[in-house]
Amino acid sequence: MNYLEKILHWRLIVTYLIVVLGLTIIITATLGPAHISPLVVLKMLASRLPLVDRLVTPSWSVAEDTIIFQIRLPRIILGVFVGAALGVAGATMQGLFKNPMADPYIIGISSGAALGATFAIAFGLNLLGIHTIPLMAFIFAVGAIFLVYNIASVGGKLPVGTLLLAGIAVSLFLSAITSFMMYISGEKLHGIVFWLMGGLWARSWDHVWMAVPWICLGSAIIYIFARDLNVMLLGEEPAQHLGIEVEILKKIMMVSASLIAAAAVAVSGIIGFVGLIIPHIMRILVGPDHRILLPGSALVGGIFLVWADTLARTIIAPTELPVGIITALFGGPFFIYLLRKRKRSMF
Amino acid sequence: MDWKKVGAILVIAFLIAFSGCIELPPKVEERPLTITDDLGRDVAIHKELNRIVSLAPSNTEILFALGLGDKVVGVTEYCDYPPEALQKEKIGGFVTVSIERVVDLNPDLVLADAHYHRTLVEELEKLGLSVVALRSDDMDEILEDIELIGKITGREEIAQELTANMGNRIKAITDKTKNLTEAQLPKVLFIHELDPLRVSGPGSLAHILIQLAGGHNIAADAKAKSVVYSSELLIERDPDVIIFNKYMGTIRITVDDLKGQPGWHVISAVKNDRVYGIDGDIVSRRGPRIVDGLEEMAKYIHPELFESEQ
Prior knowledge:
The complex is a heterodimer.
Chain A: H1 3-29, H2 38-47, H3 62-97, H4 109-122, H5 132-152, H6 160-184, H7 189-197, H8 205-224, H9 226-232, H10 236-241, H11 246-268, H12 274-286, H13 290-314, H14 323-341
Helix pairs in contact in A: 1-3, 1-13, 3-8, 3-11, 3-12, 3-13, 4-5, 4-6, 4-7, 4-11, 5-6, 5-11, 8-11, 12-13, 12-14, 13-14
Chain B: H1 3-22, E1 33-36, E2 42-45, E3 52-54, H2 57-65, E4 72-75, E5 89-90, H3 99-104, E6 109-113, H4 118-126, E7 131-134, H5 139-153, H6 156-177, E8 187-193, E9 198-200, H7 205-212, E10 216-217, E11 226-228, H8 231-237, E12 241-245, H9 255-259, H10 268-271, E13 275-278, H11 290-301, H12 303-306
């Protein structure tokens, strides 16, 4: 396959995935425990679109309008972005560390975020209303990253092995503090446990606006350096010889990936599996080139998380499940199936 | 065959079998007294009780209500009612009880929770302590447990007076609510926490109180006593009354916070200003104050029936 063909092929894949994502959003918007007919939901969606809005006459109640536009839709959109963020961050971390075990949380983001959220919940902080917990989680996650980063950097260099170990050490330390706070938090334990399980429940447009700018900015920066990330797969020294500023690249990628993961974790808690498995699945399906792997992981991550969350909110309605349970329950066996089917090198 | 012998044996067997019935019921002061606790264990109480450790806030409230405050030597960190309970020695949290401290207090009786302290009860028993575990799932059981504690501690009369009074207050509510038709039951939701939206499902004490107070819990079809509830169903089912725990686990939340939740402005309870905060302890602790909780809930759910009572 020559270069042009390859580009064309990639564009086809991305176009296809964008169509699937669009359909996913529309279909999942019609699914939910509230009894609103799918046809009405489609009409409601059309009424908000330019051009076609005049063709639709409103025939729904205020409550139905609220359910779709203030509860279901923000949750779906947030799911798309959180899933995409975890997919991109996971792919980046795996490429950077050249380690299939790497995930978005590997250098302490989740434990930092968990500690921040636990602080906010255990002490009942409520300075900024619903923004309090996400903000605390975000600040602590970013703090954890900088801590790990500073521990691991030696004379301006950032050896990935040290970074990984520093990440694990800091994670364990922060988790210990979180565990202690959970232990003494008494009746607040409920809130902390639910946050740690990860969920898109009770999410609003506010949460979307909180997270999306960071996710878009970070993903864009990473995508610009997709080719350099490919070269990095050869090893740091060859990459240096091929004209890549390895140390600078590592720092940019690390900070960008961490930022988007932190933004995702802040609004959704710790949703496991997506950031680890989606990049692997995409590597099996579209190959290891980051120019297609990154957008592919973002789109499939979004699609996967939205479907998982749709199950989480409908499967035992009126009760809702933490979406992390669904992602692992369905993602695990599917990933094993792929592994068995295509036993070839992951990198 | 010697029918006389057979007859004699039958008579003896009969006497042995029914000897328990012939015995007079034990007086309050009579020891040892054997009772069956809520774990189905038979516990013998040998002496007069002077040092009691309570492992649950509800037990503490019952003990104080029976006038046994001065005999309580240890409570949990959550035992904050009555205020005198705060002065007592702490034996740890509710789930995180320090066995060492309990033993150190040298109690004659430990009052545990049959739900949370199953294994702890065994351990304490091995250490030679007499333990009674209690757990009540509805109003009748709460009254029974109060009477049981009364019996164990020799305060039977006070306990019966208390439960009679509680029973009358419950009846005063249910007399007015029991004849309401299905259509007259307002739709109610009891909220514990907002993020995620955690509510009281079937089997929970709050659910029982809603029913007694003449309301219909819209989360009655949920899968557990305490569940994360679908936000969109909350709007679709449109509760007439929302009651929430004022001191929610996560954050202290106000009526305004609740009304400001995205999309909630369309809910009848919000539109009609029928969102009420309640002290979560009085609707969840299985003690004498549960009736206060019921009365408060009844006032919120049926102001037309109960408002003037205050």
